[in-house]
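Notebook p. 47: complex prediction with tryptophan.
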Amino acid sequence: MSKPPVKYSGPDRVFSGVQPSGDMHLGNYLGALKKFADLQNDHECVYCIVDLHAVTVWQDPAKLAGQTRNIAAAYLASGVDPDKAIIYPQSKVAAHTELAWYFNCVARIGWLSRMTQFKEKSGRNAEAMSVGLYDYPVLQAADILAFKATHVPVGEDQKQHLELSRDIAQKFNNDFNVPGFFPLPEPLIKGPGARVMSLRDGTKKMSKSDPSDNSRINLTDSPEKIAKKIRKAKTDAGVMPETVAEMEDRPELKNLVGIYGAFSGLSDQEVLSQYAGQGFGVFKPALADLAVEILRPVSERMNTYLDNPDEIDRILAKGADAAAEIATPIVADVRKVMGFWGT
Ligand code: AMP
Ligand code: TRP
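Predicted complex, structure tokens below:
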């Protein structure tokens, strides 16, 4: 009879990361940043700026450090408190790359070849992409498991990468006969804003890499710009329906109602009940007002931090030390488990 799997019995820990590879937008804010701040009060939280992931595609060396400070400023402006949570850049903690190598030897090529994000990012040009871009989800698993993190707040698009992290954790535990050594990390995806769509196409997610700036609301957009982008957002010719079921084949409407709900704390049905029968001429300005009300303070705080790069650098350096203190012994244990000389 096979033994029941031994469950991980260590403490709960939250880990997540954002790439310093472009402007932060509303999808990042609702899908990730807002949850980061909510979790820090009752969990141990580690929030990384994943610059090693960013360089899987070309990054200008003259801009990388500034982009890293930008993401730090966005974390802080969204309410992440450096006295409660750890904020640091990935490249400053060597445990990430070391564990990624060990995991390269645990993960299977077949698992990686199923990753849809690589297919989306590489398009028909896969042969010309960096090896790093293909290997990206293995590094992500190493990020999470170098901290034995149990919970990972992310947007819906990261679901498959989280499943891979669980598969790697499970295979490591099995292969080296260390049941419960690594936790099987759980994604925290639910909630409004898990998948914010483009303002120009309700079937595509809002993304840093969309060539059209009008497709997204950036955290640094001025109130006028936010209002204009919402006014110009693609919609259909109908009016606001009464029920959620009637939104099914109206992706742009569904997206805007979802954004309104995420800002106001209302369910989709409650938003519809408020606006049923009205045209977009009424709904869009109301949404724009709400968006500005919520995002203006975030953007102001972000600018205040960016005016103080020394303060950001101090927070990042302190965070890197704290992160290394957790991750270094965990990776040392991995070396022992794998039987390397000198361990
Ligand atoms: P990225 O911009 O790809 O580095 O993503 C950083 C975080 O934001 C991840 O947790 C993503 O899942 C989340 N995210 C990115 N785009 C969206 C979106 N359109 N809707 C919701 N979450 C998103
Ligand atoms: N792949 C994530 C994204 O594009 C970023 C990321 C890297 C991450 N490492 C992580 C997210 C670890 C959560 C946990 O959004």
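Notes: The chain has a mean pLDDT of 95. The pocket of tryptophan (ligand 2) is lined by residues 15-17, 19, 50, 53, 140, 143-144, 152, 154, 158, 161 (CB under 6 Å).
Next step: compare against the earlier run before touching the bench.
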